[in-house]
Amino acid sequence: MRIRIDRDRCVGAGACAHAYPEVFDQDDVEGLVMLVGDATDEAATRRAVVQCPVAAISVGTAANE
Fold first, then answer.
1. For the 4Fe-4S ferredoxin-type domain, which residue ranges apply (predicted)?
2. 1-40: buried (b, 16+ CB within 10 Å) or exposed (e) per residue?
């Protein structure tokens, strides 16, 4: 699974970091999303994607990248 983040779209709500803190966090300067680990749990990753209020995160698989 490939995770794409759009930091220009991110508003720093933190929903992704709350939903899956092993993979998502917020930087200390602007509070924007950043990847901090490997997404090993597809369901948790998709929950984090869906919870983003501005759709700043998307995922793809080898079939749809």
1. 1-29
2. eebebeeeebeebbbbbebbeebbbbeeeeebbbeeeebe
Residue 62 confidence class, pLDDT cut points 50, 70, 90: low
**What is the CB neighbour count within 10 angstroms for residue 60?**
11
pTM for the model: 0.87
The predicted pLDDT at position 64 comes to: 53
Question: Looking at the domain assignment, is residue 43 inside a domain?
Answer: yes
Looking at every residue in the chain, the average pLDDT score rounds to: 93
In the block, residue with structure tokens 């720093």: 12
Domain of 10 in residue numbering reads as: 2-60
Are 61 and 2 in contact, with CB atoms under 8 Å apart?
A: yes
- What's the number of domains the chain is made of? 1
